[in-house]
Amino acid sequence: MARVVWSSSAAADLEEIINWMADHHSNQTAGSFIDRIDTEITRLPGYPESGRIIPELERQNIPKYREIIISPWRVFYMVENDRVAILAVIDGRRNVEDIILRRNIR
Fold this sequence. Notes:
By secondary structure, the chain is an alpha+beta fold. It has four helices and five strands, in the order βααβαβββα.
C-alpha cells in the first residue's frame, strides 16, 4: 500500500484555502472542507490510480499526473513506487494550465 506525502507547495495551498474559508465563510465551512479532503486523500493509498489523469496534461501526452476533484478544488498528485505525492490544491475555476506552467509540475 502506498503512503501519502504532501509537497510543501500543496500544504501551503491547503492552508491558504482553509484560512480563506475561515475568514470569508466560517470555521465550520473550513472544517467541512478539511473533512472532504481527508476522506478523499485517505482513499488514495489503497487506490492510487483512482483519480483521473489531468486532462490538460494528457492532451500533451503527460499521463503521470492525476487528480481528484473536490469541487471546485482540484487536488493534483502523482504515484511513485510506494508513495502518492500530493503536488497542488488548485481552484478549478482558474486557468489550470498557467498554474501548472508556473509551478513546473511538468
